[in-house]
Design brief:
The protein is an alpha+beta fold and about 260 residues long. Helix content is about 45%, strand content about 15%. It folds into three domains: about 55 residues; about 140 residues, Alpha-Beta Plaits (2-Layer Sandwich), CATH 3.30.70; about 35 residues, no CATH class. It is built from six helices and nine strands, in the order E-E-H-H-E-H-E-E-H-E-H-E-H-E-E.
Amino acid sequence: MRRVQTEGIPYGSNPWHPDVAVRERWRREDPERVAKEAAEWGRREEAAERRRRDEAGRRARRQLRQYCAANRLNRFCTLTYAGEGCHDQYEFREDVAAFWKALRGSLGRPLPYAWVPEWHPGGHGLHCHFAVGRYIDRGLIKDVWGHGHIKIKLIGDLPVGSGALAEARGAARYLSKYVAKGFSAGQVSSEGERLAGLHRYEVAQGFQPERVEFVGRTDLEVLASSAQVMGCEPARRWYSNQSPGWLGPPSMWASWDR
């Protein structure tokens, strides 16, 4: 039987190889080698899974920050339960969905929002952290929630005169922190970890930022087109040639404070 290589590991040493005869023959021929290679295969799979999880986390945090900035979600609030709290993730998400439905009804129109779940480190169950882009009366939030307490957090540590965009980025940093916790927890069903199939964050539909593409012969042409649309030069720039360890294609990044 021909031996097939998979990333340097003999296919027959894969402990999950579908051909039982292949696994058994390899174990009889050289059990010590097979055990070592199977362990190495497992380590590579674990490392690949960590890379996939890290990349998914970075992508989710980036999308969440872009959504918050585009919709100027600069008001941050936390919903908690009274008593012993809620420890059922499905029940928790049903309660949060009902909260947003009732809040939209009370306000009379849709609104952009983003929220993330968090397991309380003290064992009190699940909390909901969310950001919105408009003033909502505290009493209305508490009445609509109806399950316990609310806590409104002021976005601080910003320079004097910071506008809604800077505040929205501050709120996005708080939400992204909780998203990162979710990606480090895995996908098993024990308390404190995410159940497979449940999103790590949720946003209101219909408010996704618009994607605009610019084409140019050089990075300066693309940057000039972007600056024209934004109405000013970017506040920050980054070029991949400034990072000695950069392995991707030549890249440029810019951001605006407006």
